[in-house]
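tool=predict chain=A
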Amino acid sequence: SFEGCTNNSLKGGVCQSHGAKRKPCSFEGCTNGVVKGGVCRRHGAKGKLCSFEGCTNGAVKGGVCVRHGAEYEPCSFQGCTNNSVNGGVCIRHGAKRKLCICSFEGCTNNVQSRGVCIRHGAKRKLCSFEGCTNNSLKGGVCQSHGAKRKPCSFEGCTNGVVKGGVCRRHGAKGKLCSFEGCTNGAVKGGVCKRHGARRIS
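tool=predict ok
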């Protein structure tokens, strides 16, 4: 019933974007909405696929995925071109992402796949460069082997984004080195370069 909206109404005459609440996933600790069979996509529900021939992405809007024409609502923050995530705004401007906690007893890490974090069995996609054990970011490779990170949104900065659209220099808070008293950023294995982390070149 929201003016100009073409989504299907779910509850109370409105779609999810305009306030309809979905039943939560039955997977323990998960707050995602149910897609099918009492679970969300992350925990096994198979949603509608993109109708574009040969595409295996999930349909987002109008029967197609983003790559084939579905458009997300833009963030309502003036001048922002990011997609809105929640409440009409992007994460950078206040939207909170719903995160699932690892189902391993006592673990507080975020779920990566199949209800668990990487430490407790979630499979990571590794860099395809021979002998590299870094996570792949884009194009099947890690940053060391050619994956490009989105640049920092601070005017004139060419550093890669760490968190919230900015690099460490411009306010992103990353993980710190676990070496006692060290305030450097952790590079690999929870430590900075000075305390044993090695970058693969």
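DSSP finds no helices and no strands in the chain. The mean pLDDT is 77.
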